[in-house]
Amino acid sequence: MIEFKSVEKSYGAASAISNLSLSIPSGKVTALIGPSGCGKSTLLRLILGLIEPTSGEVVVDGHPVNRDSAQAIRRKSGYVIQDGGLFPHLTTAQNIELMGKHLDRAVDINKLTQLAHFPNDALGRFPGELSGGQKQRVGLMRALALDPSLLLLDEPLGALDPLVRSSLQKDLKQIFGEIGQTVVLVTHDMAEAAYLADLIVLLRAGKVVQVGTLEDFQKRPAEPFVTEFLNAQRQMVTL
Ligand code: ADP
Known about the structure:
Layout: E1 2-11, E2 14-24, E3 29-33, H1 40-47, E4 55-60, E5 63-64, H2 70-75, E6 77-80, H3 92-103, H4 109-115, H5 132-144, E7 150-154, H6 162-179, E8 182-186, H7 190-196, E9 199-204, E10 207-212, H8 214-219, H9 224-238
Parallel strand pairs: 3-8, 3-9, 6-7, 7-8
Antiparallel strand pairs: 1-2, 1-4, 4-5, 9-10
The structure holds adenosine-5'-diphosphate.
């Protein structure tokens, strides 16, 4: 479904992605994980054509991502970012319906509130009147409003407190199962990646270190960094 072919991406002189090749399967949940600055968000932005590779190619559903194809790819994609990216002067319902109105397509708000476990009586509230977890649910409903075939989530739970985070993780898992679409999720938390994703891509400094499941990483680490990364995460839990 998504293929990175020898992709390089530099911002000025600094290389963010270097000679990266990767296939992301369709209909599955793939997590991108790795230390801060390893290029996870850059990969999502390349998929959406928000930025262009310095060299190499990104192919989505058989179409190379370029200026001509980017808009079509964005229209069939839902994108959720960490702070939700909601318009503060629009109500929850207006935020969710915005793209549908713009493209003259119907949005089934009831179906979305059920899917995202969002209270109907909060649809009239502005983002400033919602909790952090609710804001992320609205960001998710907005991303799902036009039945995307591709859902991209950039640290959607990063800023939430642990209890809210855990409840949203459960709901996300259920939602991913229900929609059955291709999902690419950026996270820095291995437990979250293992819980939500079918496939985990571990990155370091703009390169793929290993692709597999948590079990693959534990039993067959591709290099010492994989074990170091897992141990560092474990220490965060036991400290
Ligand atoms: P991650 O999502 O893994 O934290 P990013 O993809 O955001 O990593 O960033 C990868 C690298 O590219 C980092 O070194 C970051 O500082 C750099 N970078 C990202 N966006 C920009 C930008 N717009 N301009 C300059 N450098 C950037």
